[in-house]
Amino acid sequence: MTEPTQTRDPGDDEARDPRDKVLDAALPHVAFDGWSERTLKAAAQGTGMPLAEARALFPRGGVDLALAYHRRGDARMIERLQTEPLDALRFRDRIAAAIRWRLEAADREAVRRGATLFALPQHAADGSRAVWGTVDAIWTTLGDRSDDFNWYSKRATLAGVYGATVLYWLGDDSLDHQATWSFLDRRIDDVMQVEKAKARIRETPVLRTLFAGPGWLLGRVRAPQATPPADLPGYWRAPVQRSAE
């Protein structure tokens, strides 16, 4: 029996966020023109959108396009973290899975072009905020509830692991990126060794006394309690769920 023909509802395209339309149209051009004004112009033309409207959506052109692409990757990673069965995994394996899924959600050439863009001094802060947003999303989605100095240290440590893994991945030509996943496991193992050392300090009376002063001081540091403005680092914000009309 013949399968029924699938028809596309014209309203589906109209309901899409115009930012998504422009971003989708921009991606084929990124490999050639990078995250640039030229790419934004080509994307606007590809969607039939007036350039002025596209610029209103992405005021800084390529930079805002690259950041939108990064946030899309974060959202896809979060969706997998929320739907894949993780209960049987050790916590360090959940972290590894999150980073792996984040990279699998990305196009390598688009990320390479983004890394080049955010290496420029005028855009370095944007790149740092994007990475911080990714690692905060990982910790938050996996249930981190720390509200002291550990809130910062966990994210700073994971940012180092994530950044190093991205750089390795960009140059990895191994089958299915197996070399990258092995590299990631080694970096996480290194972090776990640090955590074990911290636990030994807490359990050893002499060391606990020695680090009592610094520990007390760091214990006074609190995580942010109020959601900061969108242009400041520190928090991942859950995407707004749009109800179907």
Q: Secondary-structure blueprint of this entry?
A:
Blueprint: H1 10-15, H2 18-33, H3 37-47, H4 51-57, H5 62-83, H6 91-104, H7 108-118, H8 124-141, H9 149-170, H10 178-203, H11 205-210, H12 212-219
Walkthrough of the structure:
The two termini are 33 Å apart. The protein has helices at residues 10-15, 18-33, 37-47, 51-57, 62-83, 91-104, 108-118, 124-141, 149-170, 178-203, 205-210, 212-219. It has one domain (16-45, 52-219): Tetracycline Repressor, domain 2. Helix 2 crosses helix 3 (37-47) and helix 3 packs across helix 4. The chain is mostly helical and 245 residues long. It is built from 12 helices and no strands.
Brief summary of the model shown:
With 245 residues, the protein is mainly alpha-helical. The protein has helices spanning 10-15, 18-33, 37-47, 51-57, 62-83, 91-104, 108-118, 124-141, 149-170, 178-203, 205-210, 212-219.
Shape annotation: globular
Helicity range of the residues? 55-70%
What is the name of the CATH architecture?
Orthogonal Bundle
The portion of residues forming beta strands comes to: under 5%
Helix-and-strand structural type: mainly alpha
Give the integer mean of the pLDDT values.
Answer: 82
Number of helices: 12
Helix-strand sequence: HHHHHHHHHHHH
